[in-house]
Recover the amino acids of this structure.
């Protein structure tokens, strides 16, 4: 079996950047700067105007080590191979030849410079994918750590080394131009200054040197107190400001004229890996391994920068994820960085951060430098409800090793003011102060949170005010052992608790809370709970790796599942309570079918799944993994195609699957193989020869009722046209049109125009300028088309139908009114009969169903008495009625069938 039977890889959420420096380039067609960041084996392309994800690169076989870009290609170093991407999705070039991992790239005109970890420099011809020049260096003497092309230095490249050496080479002939004096520290950064011949050199010891390359003179030397220099950039919008980044996340702004520090900025929690000022704009871009990308603008009164835009994810792997709400659009995620975040499954631009847990939020905001002493430990577990989202805090969370339970507001996207601690643990003189909160559950009404502790206590609080409401059990609910799981029913009648003693207890929610109503002894200690409130089922994970299903109403064990080979890390129910999904430290995820009590699907990952949650709509499964900062979505294939589920042996080996990659709306990911060699240019030429134009036929089948392409206003307003005309009656009387010569005939219709169709250049066939009428009937254009269709034997009346379909409501009403010879009309009985035959043909062919109904309604409204008085028209009326009955019967059958299917599916899901 290959992969999962039920779930298919969909996408990853929450990845922004890592330790690889980002690249920035200006795209003229988009009129904006685009930023390329690395996220493991792939790369993202963002638009700087809104930080919207534009493109996602292909999935590479190894971790990306470096990225560079020019005006045509994006170059990615992956292991010893360099890939050239066009538009981030089309693999155009592949450069092979390095024997070690490539860690530096520099596009140079029609060439590309690459440096591997063995300090071998290769100059590639970009178009031919051939090596133009090789320059080997020895790591013992000159290990290349940085490189730069000095402006206006033709064919010259400046190399910096880990030993502190600096050399200028001519890459056209491969000769050393000049060796500069060595520095006492590793050269980490080389950056071109706005002034010609000047290069900025950043050293590992924190020194920054502005060197004049032409005269080998030091223009300026600066030293930052934050440690190694990780990035240097210059403002080019008229301000003499240089910015330098450091390993602790600080950015220092230097005034080069006065050689002083203007201001500092706490940009990130970790090292600043990318630092780039946009050309001729007061904007600064920074990225960091803390999985964030920020855009700063220089508009403060003191010349400092403030945050303009941010795109970020978890700085550490998530520990607990849960869907919030019934729409399945938001995922709450708590990470090891003590933060709580909201990830949108619709668009990552809608992601929000609720902040990081803090003992004192105001003090944490003022604390800018170094580690925050008020930071709380990471969130271990949280619970949420949407009932009271708008009124007060709707999320409660436990923290690693803490007795305090914090509250969070989903609506306001911030941490609440409450820290729930029972009175029994508020005495600081107690010797057993090592108690921590281990389980919690919010009531369905959103008013109460019940918390279990490692000491066995079970307490209930009001989440709005933080007031303690009840203590369950005397002595504690589970005396001496930790409470591992809590469940509350929808009606707040009972609280179910499970402890490490292997006992489940049912308690009255409000009254008689001192003694349990019922106790159920299990074979093994309880590890955790998973609840499905609508079906009153509780999934209980035991420490022997087994999972039990307990019916909370009957208080009995109804299912037992075994097959995991490690402790259960998380479990959840499907929305319809048919499946139970479990994750274990054996790196597997298993899907159990509850009615049949069989295993129906399982799959394995390279890492341990730490948390999983099923969407309330049942379309996606969200998972998180050890050492992965993202949240991974898996699509439920049973919603989109028929899947036959078979029984699987729980002891069988689960198939290994790869994690989903990030996707966006504009491209599909491509998996690269080392042996793949695709000539995309040839493929593009072949595709250009294929015509992909497809036009849908007017009618797919005569067995189907087909509507017209006309707008609804063309036929919906026909029957109410009189009312509309009265409402839109002009205030001023219409002006009389200019009188025309009596001998010039006019075309019937609302628009005044002459009919010169019978003459050529104003002359008749005999050369006379006097036009002679050829027929007595003064038919309208529509009437003439009807008469012509009858005479030519056109049974489908194509031309009259097409003519009438292109008219507006007023003209349609005019043409149908003039079909009768009575009441000033210009038609005839034969033309009226032709119109009725046209309607019958239209309805029998199931074409333009709504137009035919509206036209027939207008015809009968205006000419009903004429139809009754003439036997020829009355006979045709029966034919029209029969055609209409057949069409409506077919439409009614399809509607009732669709309504029955929808009702059946709704009842099945309920």
């Amino acid at each position: 079996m290959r992969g999962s039977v039920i779930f298919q890889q969909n996408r990853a959420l929450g990845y922004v950047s890592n330790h690889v420096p980002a690249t920035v380039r200006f795209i003229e067609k988009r009129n904006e700067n685009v930023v390329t960041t690395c996220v493991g084996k792939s790369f993202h392309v963002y638009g700087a105007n809104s930080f919207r994800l534009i493109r996602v690169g292909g999935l590479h076989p190894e971790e990306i080590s470096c990225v560079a870009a020019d005006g045509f290609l994006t170059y990615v170093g992956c292991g010893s191979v360099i890939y050239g991407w066009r538009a981030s999705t089309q693999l155009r070039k592949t450069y092979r030849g390095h024997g070690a991992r490539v860690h530096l790239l520099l596009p140079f005109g029609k060439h590309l410079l690459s440096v591997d970890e063995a300090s071998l420099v290769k100059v590639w011809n970009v178009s031919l994918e051939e090596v133009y020049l090789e320059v080997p260096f020895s790591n013992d003497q000159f290990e290349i750590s940085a490189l730069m092309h000095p402006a206006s230095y033709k064919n010259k490249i400046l190399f910096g080394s880990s030993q502190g050496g600096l050399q200028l080479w001519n890459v056209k002939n491969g000769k050393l131009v000049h060796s500069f004096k060595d520095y006492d520290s590793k050269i980490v950064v080389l950056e071109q200054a706005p002034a010609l011949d000047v290069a900025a050199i950043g050293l590992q010891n924190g020194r920054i040197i502005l060197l004049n390359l032409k005269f080998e003179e030091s223009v300026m030397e600066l030293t930052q107190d934050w440690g190694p220099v990780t990035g240097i950039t210059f403002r080019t919008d008229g301000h003499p400001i240089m910015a330098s980044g450091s390993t602790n996340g600080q950015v220092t702004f230097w005034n080069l004229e006065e050689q002083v520090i203007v201001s500092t900025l706490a940009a990130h929690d970790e090292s600043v890996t990318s630092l780039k000022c946009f050309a001729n704009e007061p904007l600064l871009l920074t990225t960091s391994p803390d999985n964030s990308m920020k855009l700063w603008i220089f508009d403060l009164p003191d010349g400092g920068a403030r945050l303009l835009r941010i795109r970020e994810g978890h700085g550490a792997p998530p520990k607990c994820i849960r869907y919030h709400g019934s729409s399945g659009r938001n995922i709450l995620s708590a990470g090891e960085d003590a933060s709580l975040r909201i990830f949108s499954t619709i668009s990552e631009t809608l992601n929000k951060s609720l902040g990081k847990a803090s003992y004192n939020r105001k003090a944490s905001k003022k604390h800018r430098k170094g580690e925050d002493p008020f930071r709380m430990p990471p969130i271990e577990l949280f619970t949420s409800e949407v009932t009271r989202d708008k009124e007060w805090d709707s999320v409660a969370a436990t923290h690693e090793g803490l007795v305090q339970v914090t509250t969070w507001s989903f609506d306001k996207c911030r941490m609440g003011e409450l820290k729930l601690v029972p009175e029994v643990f508020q005495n600081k003189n107690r010797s057993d102060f090592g108690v921590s909160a281990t389980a919690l559950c919010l009531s369905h009404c959103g008013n109460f949170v019940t918390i279990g502790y490692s000491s066995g206590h079970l307490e209930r609080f009001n989440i709005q005010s933080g007031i303690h409401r009840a203590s369950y059990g005397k002595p504690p609910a589970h005396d001496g052992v930790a409470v591992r799981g809590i469940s509350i029913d929808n009606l707040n009648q009972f609280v179910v608790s499970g402890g490490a003693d292997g006992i489940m207890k049912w308690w009255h929610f409000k009254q008689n809370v001192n003694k349990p109503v019922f106790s159920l002894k299990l074979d093994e200690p309880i590890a955790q709970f998973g609840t499905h409130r609508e079906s009153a089922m509780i999934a209980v994970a035991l420490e022997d790796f087994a999972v039990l299903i307990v019916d909370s109403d009957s208080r009995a064990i109804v299912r037992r599942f075994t097959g995991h080979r490690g402790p259960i890390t998380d479990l959840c129910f499907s929305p319809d309570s048919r499946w139970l999904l479990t994750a274990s430290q054996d790196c597997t995820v298993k899907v159990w079918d509850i009615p049949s009590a069989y295993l129906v699907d399982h799959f394995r990952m390279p890492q341990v799944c730490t948390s999983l949650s099923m969407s309330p709509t049942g379309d996606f499964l969200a998972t998180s993994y050890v050492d992965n900062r993202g949240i991974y979505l898996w699509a439920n294939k049973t919603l989109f195609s028929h899947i036959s589920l078979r029984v699987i042996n729980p002891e069988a080996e689960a198939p290994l699957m790869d994690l989903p990659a990030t996707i966006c709306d504009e491209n599909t990911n491509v998996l690269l193989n080392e042996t793949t060699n695709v000539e995309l240019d040839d493929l593009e030429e072949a595709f250009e020869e294929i015509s992909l134009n497809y036009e849908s036929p007017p009618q797919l089948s005569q067995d189907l009722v087909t509507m017209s392409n006309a707008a609804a206003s063309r036929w919906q307003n026909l029957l109410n046209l009189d009312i509309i005309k009265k409402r839109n009656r002009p205030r001023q009387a219409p002006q009389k049109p200019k009188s025309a010569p009596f001998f010039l005939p006019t075309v019937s219709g609302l628009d005044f125009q002459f009919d010169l169709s019978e003459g050529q250049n104003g002359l008749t066939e005999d050369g006379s300028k006097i036009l002679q009428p050829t027929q007595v009937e003064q038919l309208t254009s529509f009437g003439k088309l009807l008469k012509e269709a009858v005479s030519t034997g056109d049974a489908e009346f194509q031309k009259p139908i097409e003519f009438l379909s292109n008219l507006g409501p007023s003209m349609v009403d005019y043409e149908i009114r003039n079909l009768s010879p009575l009441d000033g009309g210009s038609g005839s009985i034969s033309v009226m009969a032709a119109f009725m035959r046209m309607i019958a043909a239209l309805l029998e062919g199931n074409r333009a169903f709504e137009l035919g109904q509206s036209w027939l309604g207008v015809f009968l409204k205006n000419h009903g008495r004429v139809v009754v008085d003439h036997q020829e028209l009355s006979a045709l009326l029966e034919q029209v009625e029969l055609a209409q009955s057949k069409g409506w019967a077919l439409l009614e059958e399809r509607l009732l069938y669709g309504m029955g299917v929808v009702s059946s599916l709704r009842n099945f899901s309920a």
Summary: DSSP finds ten helices and 56 strands in the chain. Residues 273 and 288 are 5 Å apart (CA to CA). The two ends are 32 Å apart (CA to CA).
